[in-house]
Amino acid sequence: MQVTCKNCGSVVRVRPSHASRTKFCSMACRREFQASTHELKRHLDGMRFRCKQRKGWADRGIKCCIASTEELLNILGPKPAAGFSVDRIDVNGNYEAGNIRWATQKQQMNNRTNNIFITYDNKTLTLQEWADRTGLSKGCLHYRHLSPRWSVEEMLTTPAKKQAK
Ligand SMILES: [Zn+2]
Question: Distance from the CA of 13 to the center of ligand 1, in angstroms?
């Protein structure tokens, strides 16, 4: 009988009496799979937590529609590397198949800020373009943009070091 390893996908031959019990080609694969399942569980818990606790998410109806780590794995595949987390492609959409992907912090930040346009001095540019022009970080501009204390002029012309007002 043949069994496909749940971790690496390689096909192994096993005795028929062992087929139902065998899920991995090796102990190493079993351990790797368990570690990655554990990690996926952490991400899934985080997704559920954010839907419940993040300000405004419940009001916007953002939900986690992923029922299990297996489902998450089927949709996304294993986590590509440390530093990746589950990102929603449409930031107003749910955690669900078609709207999630593995992304780094930087990609997630881009996703959230790419469609923020700011007009100043007769120019309308994205946050990134303003960051390039002003030498301020995009994170800094984003923070100021969200804070009602900053006017557009102040947010673009105040040096980063003098943030405290
Ligand atoms: Zn394997």
Answer: 12
